[in-house]
UniProtKB/TrEMBL annotation:
<dbReference type="InterPro" id="IPR003593">
    <property type="entry name" value="AAA+_ATPase"/>
</dbReference>
<dbReference type="InterPro" id="IPR027417">
    <property type="entry name" value="P-loop_NTPase"/>
</dbReference>
<dbReference type="InterPro" id="IPR051782">
    <property type="entry name" value="ABC_Transporter_VariousFunc"/>
</dbReference>
<feature type="domain" description="ABC transporter">
    <location>
        <begin position="4"/>
        <end position="229"/>
    </location>
</feature>
<dbReference type="Pfam" id="PF00005">
    <property type="entry name" value="ABC_tran"/>
</dbReference>
<keyword id="KW-0547">Nucleotide-binding</keyword>
<protein>
    <submittedName>
        <fullName>ABC transporter</fullName>
    </submittedName>
</protein>
<keyword id="KW-0813">Transport</keyword>
<dbReference type="InterPro" id="IPR003439">
    <property type="entry name" value="ABC_transporter-like_ATP-bd"/>
</dbReference>
<dbReference type="GO" id="GO:0016887">
    <property type="term" value="F:ATP hydrolysis activity"/>
</dbReference>
<dbReference type="GO" id="GO:0005524">
    <property type="term" value="F:ATP binding"/>
</dbReference>
<keyword id="KW-0067">ATP-binding</keyword>
């Protein structure tokens, strides 16, 4: 069953389009990484799915319903993002109690254990926490709510490397204990790809790719060698990225549509073929130019 379905979704702010003709579905009990550069439209898309704002056109369904201002969707969805505000007078412990009364799957023991593990003082006010501690508290609420649809929008912002690592591990462990549909937006694909099942990559409001992490690792191949040999090899191919390498060399990334024999022929011509990580592929696909930053200096 699909928990989220978007068909031709567009969101316009003034004269600019934040989302353009976006169509995809997310299956129940899966962890999807929503990946895109700054301004790609991640927060806009997530807030529409969470029912906080309306798309300009197209159809969005969450638990088969229109999510905007929908009680069923809000009771079954938690949206953790950097702009969350809490009543200034309430302590962390009171905030957890309030959250517990709203979310029917709330796991108080998990919330308290995580609060203790991350050394957050239950009698402290949310306003007095540092940026990273606020993100940690928000993440605890997001995990303990155990909502059927759990959305984390760049949840690790401000967290140090150790806390980020612990968070991803806690997310995976709790997902195994209590499967649900999780969407995790991030710029740092290399940190999260181990826990993701699929990746939805967006660029300037449009879908670039939506596939499993495994398929993404096979999607492209890197070719390097003398410039002339690389250029003749890639002449008829779909080039994703190209840059100079060393004095007379070229490194290119192309769609991986080669047979083993084809790759062997390339090796015999002195070309080196290397895998392209999901992280690098996302970076190349969302780059403004095929030459990356080198283009500015050429
Ligand atoms: N309330 C708004 N009014 C006008 N334009 C907006 C508004 N919110 C977002 N935008 C524009 O929509 C586009 C997408 O923004 P959005 O915040 O969804 O991107 P994002 O992928 O979450 O970015 P980041 O990774 O930097 O957080 C941007 O061009 C942004 O300037």
């Amino acid at each position: 069953m699909n928990v989220v379905s978007c068909q031709g979704v567009m969101k316009r702010y003034g004269r600019g389009n934040a989302l353009r003709n976006l169509s995809f579905t997310l299956a129940e009990n899966s962890i999807t990484g929503l990946i895109g550069r700054n301004g790609a439209g991640k927060t806009t898309l997530l807030s529409i799915i969470a029912g906080l704002q309306k798309q300009t056109s197209g159809e969005v369904r969450v638990f088969s319903e229109n999510p905007f201002n929908n009680l069923k969707v809000s009771a079954n969805t938690i949206f953790i993002h950097g702009n969350m505000t809490f009543p200034a007078a309430m302590t962390l412990s009171e905030l957890l109690q309030t959250a517990g009364s709203f979310y029917h799957n709330w796991n108080n023991q998990l919330a308290e254990r995580l609060l203790e593990y991350f050394s957050l003082d239950p009698s402290q006010n949310h306003n007095n926490l540092s940026k990273g501690m606020k993100s940690t508290f928000n993440m605890i609420v997001g995990l303990a709510a155990r909502c059927p649809l759990t959305i984390f929008d760049e949840p690790t912002s401000g967290m140090d490397a150790g806390v980020r690592k612990d968070f991803y591990r806690a997310l995976l462990k709790d997902y195994i204990a209590s499967p649900r549909t999780i969407i995790l937006s991030s710029h740092l694909l290399n940190e999260v790809e181990d826990i993701l099942e699929d990746i939805l990559l967006i660029k300037e409001g449009e879908k670039c790719l939506h596939m499993t992490v495994e398929d993404m690792k096979e999607y492209a191949i890197g070719i390097s060698g003398p410039a002339a040999a690389v250029e003749s090899w890639i002449a008829e191919r779909e080039i994703i990225h190209q840059q100079t390498a060393g004095v007379n060399g070229t490194y290119a990334v192309v769609r991986n549509v080669f047979s083993e024999e084809g790759l062997e022929r390339a090796r015999l011509q002195g070309l080196e073929m290397t895998p392209v990580s999901a992280d690098s592929l996302c970076m190349y696909l969302t780059s403004k130019t095929k030459g990356g930053i080198d283009h500015v200096f050429s």
